[in-house]
C-alpha cells in the first residue's frame, strides 16, 4: 500500500510517466488564490546571500505595511540568534533589498525608516490586472499642495556640505611610500559600509581618498578613531557619501603629533626578598642578590 501511494504522488507530478526525473526535486504545485506573496527568482536563487538572509527577505516581503521588523521584533519570532538576524539584515541592505535611514520627526525625535524592495534597482510600479478594464476618461489631476516649509535645523546637529565642491584638495601623506599604511587606508574606506550601508564607496572613490586616510595614519590616528570620525552623526539624507567622506577627511585632519621628549622613567619593580645568610640573624631583606642584610654587613665591616 505504501508503494502504491508513493507511485500515485510521483505520477501526479507530471502528465506522463516519462516526465518524472530519475533524481532531484519533484514539484507538486498548487495555484494560490489567497494569502500568498510573489517572490522573484533573483531573490530565491541569489548566488551571494546566505539562506538566512533569503528567508528573512521573503518573510519581510510577506508582512503588511507598517509591520515592525527591528532586530528586537524578529528575535522572538525565529530561533536564530540576534547576531545572525542582524547579519542577515546587513546582507539585505548590501544587496539593495532593504534600506534603513534615520529621519527626524516633527517633534525633534530621530526614528529609523525601513523600506523593503522586492526588486532592487527598479522603482515601484503599479501592477496592472490581467484583463484591463475599459479606459476611463482622463481627468486632469488636482493641483499639488504646496510643499511644507523645511524643518528647522537642530543647532546641536553638525552642519556640513555634502554636494558642495571641496574648497581644498584632500590631504596627502608626506611619505607616501608605505605599503602597509596604504593597505590599512584602503581597508578603512572599504569597511565604512559595515558601519552604515549608505557609505558604500566605489573603487575609484576609494583610490582617490586613500592618500587622505594615509595622511591621518601618518599623523598617529588609529584605524578605529578614523572610522569613528567618518561615521559619527551622519545626516538623515545622505546624497553623496564620497563627497561627505572627502569633506571630513579634509576638515577634520588631526594635527601632527609633537616630537616626543624624554620619557619619564618606567616603573622599576622592587628587588626580591632575600634571607640573611648569617645563621644567627635570618632577617628577610630586599636585594638583587643573596647575601647578608644591612646590619650584618655593618657589623662585619666594624669587626
Architecture of the domain at 33-116, CATH level 2? Orthogonal Bundle
Q: How would you name the CATH homologous superfamily of the domain at 33-116?
A: Winged helix-like DNA-binding domain superfamily/Winged helix DNA-binding domain
CATH class of the domain at 33-116: Mainly Alpha
Structural class: mainly alpha
What is the H-and-E element order?
A: HHHHHEEHHHHHEEH
CATH fold-type name of the domain at 33-116: Arc Repressor Mutant, subunit A
**Strand content bin:** 5-15%
From the N-terminal CA to the C-terminal CA, the straight-line distance is 114 Å
In total, the number of strands is 4
Computed CA radius of gyration, to the nearest angstrom: 34 Å
Principal-axes geometry comes out as elongated
Sheet with most strands: strand arrangement: 1-2
> Which regions have little confidence, pLDDT < 50, spanning 5+ residues?
3-10, 124-133, 147-160, 162-166
The amount of helix comes to 25-40%
**Major β-sheet, in short?**
2 strands, antiparallel
Mean pLDDT across the residues is 78
Tally of individual helices: 11
Amino acid at each position: 500500500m505504501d508503494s502504491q501511494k508513493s507511485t500515485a504522488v510521483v505520477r501526479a507530478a507530471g502528465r506522463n510517466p516519462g516526465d518524472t526525473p530519475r533524481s532531484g526535486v519533484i514539484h507538486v504545485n498548487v495555484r494560490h488564490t489567497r494569502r500568498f506573496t510573489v517572490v522573484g527568482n533573483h531573490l530565491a536563487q541569489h548566488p551571494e546571500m546566505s539562506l538566512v538572509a533569503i528567508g528573512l527577505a521573503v518573510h519581510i516581503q510577506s508582512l503588511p505595511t507598517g509591520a515592525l521588523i527591528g532586530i528586537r521584533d524578529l528575535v522572538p519570532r525565529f530561533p536564530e540568534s540576534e547576531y545572525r538576524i542582524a547579519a542577515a539584515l546587513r546582507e539585505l541592505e548590501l544587496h539593495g533589498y532593504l534600506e534603513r535611514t534615520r529621519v527626524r520627526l516633527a517633534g525633534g525625535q530621530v526614528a529609523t525608516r525601513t523600506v523593503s524592495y522586492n526588486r532592487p534597482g527598479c522603482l515601484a510600479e503599479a501592477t496592472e490586472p490581467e484583463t484591463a478594464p475599459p479606459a476611463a476618461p482622463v481627468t486632469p489631476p488636482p493641483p499639488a499642495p504646496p510643499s511644507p516649509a523645511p524643518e528647522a535645523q537642530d543647532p546641536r546637529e553638525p552642519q556640513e556640505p555634502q554636494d558642495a565642491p571641496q574648497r581644498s584638495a584632500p590631504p596627502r601623506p608626506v611619505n607616501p611610500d608605505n605599503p602597509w599604511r596604504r593597505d590599512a587606508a584602503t581597508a578603512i574606506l572599504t569597511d565604512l559600509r559595515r558601519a552604515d550601508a549608505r557609505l558604500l564607496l566605489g573603487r575609484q572613490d576609494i583610490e582617490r581618498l586613500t592618500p587622505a586616510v594615509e595622511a591621518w595614519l601618518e599623523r598617529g590616528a588609529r584605524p578605529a578613531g578614523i572610522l569613528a570620525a567618518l561615521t559619527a552623526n551622519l545626516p538623515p539624507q545622505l546624497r553623496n557619501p564620497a563627497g561627505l567622506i572627502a569633506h571630513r577627511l579634509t576638515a577634520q585632519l588631526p594635527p601632527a603629533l609633537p616630537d616626543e621628549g624624554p620619557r619619564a622613567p618606567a616603573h622599576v619593580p622592587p628587588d626580591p626578598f632575600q634571607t640573611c645568610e648569617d645563621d644567627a640573624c635570618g632577617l628577610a631583606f630586599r636585594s638583587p642578590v643573596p647575601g647578608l642584610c644591612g646590619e650584618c654587613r655593618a657589623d662585619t665591616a666594624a669587626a
